[in-house]
Design a protein that fits this description.
single chain; about 270 residues; alpha/beta; Rossmann fold; two-stranded antiparallel sheet; 9 helices; 9 strands; about 40% helix; binds adenosine monophosphate; nucleoside triphosphate adenylate kinase activity; transferase; AMP kinase activity
């Protein structure tokens, strides 16, 4: 299999899937195979702002701590600034007075920030200009989480592939039930496909393995119910835009080759002349 493939145009993608389906694994594999892709995580951007105690970080901190979603306007501003900073979106032609030189972290997110505080942010008369250069390719992680956020993002930068990752619930539950960790090192085992040499013991230290706190069936069923509630309108939104693609499999290894193939057909450079 070829490694490190080039892209022919900008890929702007989102992975959607139930907790435990392996979104992180697929994202990591895509990033490895397509070096022009980068990941933008709304959670990481927020945590960065909290750590640096920016005005936005201070406002968002309590929502993040309680596990609630932060307000849409806040998260949109964060993404917008990140995309501007990377040079992947530019203000609409003829627009003046937008400060494009600051990073999400440096930006003063105060009330005087006209562009991002504009009530017309989601309905700009002309949408920002989007770079189609392959280097402007990204996987958005954690955003958009709702159809409302997706609609607002459409006005800033059009996503051109939404991957819905599907694994039967009973398979994910089995995977979670079989998962054991060695907490001090982070080594993960699975009694069905990656069992420790000695049952219940870490291979290297021989210490006892434990369960992760959120690895129980009831917790997972609750998270799944929440996910299904919000993902359905989100997926419908993108189905209507014609950018939704679904892939099913019982494991990450089963899903990856299908995902790579689809991704390559849409975005990879054709074979070059020798
Ligand atoms: P994550 O790392 O994606 O789990 O995000 C951590 C926290 O950041 C979430 O629990 C929310 O409080 C906040 N957050 C991240 N992304 C979003 C989003 N798209 N909309 C609202 N809140 C978000």
């Amino acid at each position: 299999m070829l490694n490190n493939m080039g892209l022919s145009k900008a890929a702007r993608i989102i992975l959607v899937g139930a907790p435990g389906v392996g979104k992180g694994t697929q994202a990591e594999r895509l990033l490895q195979r397509f070096p022009q892709l980068s990941a933008i995580s709304s959670g990481d951007l927020l945590r960065d702002n909290v750590k640096n105690q920016t005005p936005l970080g201070i406002k968002a901190e309590s929502a993040i701590k309680s596990g609630a979603l932060v307000p849409d306007a806040m998260i949109l501003r964060l993404i917008l600034h990140e995309l501007k900073h990377r040079g992947w979106i530019q203000p609409p032609k003829g627009t003046v007075g937008l400060n494009l030189s600051t990073t999400a972290r440096e930006q003063d997110f105060g009330a005087e920030d006209h562009f991002v505080n504009s009530p017309t942010l989601a309905n700009l008369a002309a949408p920002p200009r989007t770079s189609d250069d392959p280097s402007a390719s990204f996987i958005l992680d954690g955003f958009p989480r709702t159809a409302g956020q997706a609609g607002q993002l459409d006005n800033l930068i059009p996503i051109n592939l939404v991957v819905s990752l599907r694994t039967p619930a009973e398979v994910i539950i089995e995977r979670i039930a079989g998962r054991w960790v060695h907490a001090p090192s982070g080594r993960v085992y699975n009694t069905t496909f990656n069992a420790p040499k000695v049952a219940g013991r870490d291979d290297i230290t021989g210490e006892k393995l434990t369960k992760r706190e959120d690895d129980d069936e009831e917790t997972w069923m609750n998270r799944l119910a929440k996910f299904e509630e919000t993902s359905e309108p989100l997926l419908n939104h993108y189905a209507q835009k014609g950018v939704l693609w679904e892939v099913s499999g019982n494991s990450s290894d089963e899903i990856s080759p299908k995902l790579f193939k689809e991704f390559e057909e849409r975005f990879a450079e054709g074979p070059r002349d020798p």
